[in-house]
Design a protein that fits this description.
By secondary structure, the protein is α/β, with parallel strands linked by helices. It contains 14 helices and eight strands. About 65% of the residues lie in helices and about 10% in strands.
Length: about 375
């Protein structure tokens, strides 16, 4: 059996319980109606049906297990078929009791699909469908040839009002059940689609972001580069590297190092717009792409650098000093980068290949990388922009 939780927010056993109670309520209605019409045989059978569904509901709620799902479906279907055949044989087709097996079949097949294995579903669904068709065929043939037991034995001739009452009750139950089932199915499909979208978004986030820092990962940023190249907007690329990060790990431990990385990433993210992106480029390296002019981006980078220096990180009562060195370049330098790049062959095919591999942005990244290490060799905690 499948161990599925309800998509409606309730435990699966409660769905069996509520279905049993609904069937019990239907048979109470039949019991009262048959008693009023003095159809004592059918009234007695409905006393059995009411008790049957009460016991089925109690077992469902106490079992707390889905291993009885198949037995519940089979017993439920058997009672419905026996009741429909008995009422039709006794009263004829005009009372519309033949609708009951057709009514419960899609509902029970749904329970089979959700709570039973694929093999059990197909085998049981096939048998139940054949039984339902055979039952309907029997009721049609019997009513067409014999009529009804009541009329044949002169036990109880149904009046027009009684036929209309029973037919109306069955149509109301059929329509109400189908509408409720449709609403339930729609609700569960909608919830399942929402869960699927949420899961896909979560998986996409996991696939495109660094688990520790929340920054984009190196693999996912290339799609952003495609959009950047096509936009023709001004932008700046920054490559930052935490100063003496190995010393922090060696002195305070890797847990402290993780806190430092996360804190620095939070500072970067808090100073970015929706049009920007930052990714964890390497171990302690972070690449930032800012949209805007060189002056605007440089001012924001200075603010990031200042906030990183002001981080109040304490590990085991010892303050941890955090600084970061940055290499900085603007997109207006791209022309110069192309001019100085070594191009082996200048052909349309080669140009397309270079565009696809982001050779322009890669060259700019190479520039900021060189500037970063100029800063590393000249005191650290600086921004090298030229």
């Amino acid at each position: 059996m499948k161990d599925n939780s309800s998509r409606l927010g309730t435990e699966p056993v409660f769905q069996f319980y509520f279905a049993s109670l609904a069937a019990c309520g239907m048979h109470i209605t039949y019991l009262i109606t048959f008693s009023i019409f003095r159809m004592w045989l059918l009234a007695m059978f409905n006393i059995f049906s009411v008790l049957f569904y009460l016991v089925l509901g109690i077992i469902s709620i106490k079992a707390r297990s889905l291993k009885y799902a198949l037995a519940w479906v089979v017993l439920f279907n058997a009672e419905v078929i026996v009741h429909a055949v008995l009422c039709t044989v006794m009263q004829g087709m005009d009372t519309a009791f033949f609708l009951l097996p057709l009514l419960v079949l899609p509902v029970l097949l749904y329970y089979l699909f959700v709570y039973c294995s694929r093999k059990v579903f197909f085998r049981t669904a096939g048998i139940m469908s054949i039984v339902a068709i055979a039952t309907l065929a029997f009721m049609i043939i019997f009513s067409g040839t014999v009529g009804s037991v009541y009329s044949l034995a002169h036990m109880h001739e149904l009046t027009g009002a009684e036929i209309m009452t029973l037919r109306t009750i069955n149509i109301i139950f059929t329509f109400g059940t189908l509408m409720l089932f449709t609403f339930t199915f729609y609700t569960e499909v909608t919830r399942a689609m929402a869960q699927l979208r949420a899961t896909n978004q979560k998986l996409n986030y996991i696939a495109t972001h660094d688990a520790l820092t929340g920054l984009s990962n190196r693999h996912s940023i290339w799609k952003f580069f495609d959009e950047l190249e096509n936009s023709r907007e001004h932008y700046c690329i920054v490559l930052g590297d935490l100063d003496d990060f190995k010393k922090i790990n060696d002195t305070y431990g890797h847990d402290c190092g993780d806190i430092v990385l996360k804190s620095v990433a939070d500072v970067i993210l808090s100073n970015m717009t929706e049009a920007d992106i930052a990714c964890r480029w390497g171990g302690e390296e972070m690449l930032i792409v800012m949209r805007g002019t060189r002056v605007e981006c440089f001012e924001r980078l200075e603010r990031i650098k200042s906030e990183i220096c002001s981080l109040d990180i304490v590990h085991e009562n010892q303050p941890v000093r955090v600084t970061m060195t940055f290499g900085f370049a603007g997109s207006e330098e791209m022309t110069h980068t192309f001019e100085t790049a070594e191009l082996e062959v200048i052909t349309p095919a080669a140009t397309a290949a270079r565009t696809h591999s982001h050779i322009g942005i890669e060259s700019l990244i190479s520039v900021v990388d060189k500037r970063l290490y100029v800063g590393k060799r000249n005191g650290k905690n600086v921004i090298i922009a030229a």
